[in-house]
Write a structure and sequence with these properties.
The protein has no helices and ten strands. By secondary structure, it is mainly β.
Length: 117
């Protein structure tokens, strides 16, 4: 059974930083493109960053230059370093394959990120 466990969220002031982690078990994900998604209250889930199996990264414009996605295939872990956080980054953050069907559409519980003074 595929499991995704996100961690590292919290409450941070504008301009602060957080590092999110996601451990994937039950499936070897080294061949998959992985991504971080986020869902703010009342909004649809959006994909904000991806990292291919070769390490190529892509970001949505709103986080470009502030977020960095990376992966450690030996640990089945994906990371998201978030700097210069803004209130509009407030959301529940999830990791998954791109597309999620590669991991059978399983989702973890997510990790809450709140940016507020």
């Amino acid at each position: 059974q595929v499991q995704l466990v996100e961690s590292g969220g919290g409450l941070v002031q504008p301009g602060g930083s957080l590092r999110l982690s996601c451990v994937v078990s039950g499936r070897i994900f080294s061949a998959y493109t992985m991504g971080w998604y986020r869902q703010a209250p009342g909004k649809q889930r959006e994909l904000v960053a991806t990292v291919s199996s070769e390490g190529t990264t892509i970001y949505v414009d709103s986080v470009k230059g502030r977020f960095t996605i990376s992966r450690d295939n030996a640990k089945n872990t994906v990371y998201l370093q978030m700097n210069s956080l803004k209130p509009e980054d407030t959301a529940v953050y999830y990791c998954n394959a791109v597309p999620p069907v590669l991991l059978r559409n399983n989702w973890g519980q997510g990790t809450q990120v709140t940016v507020s003074s």
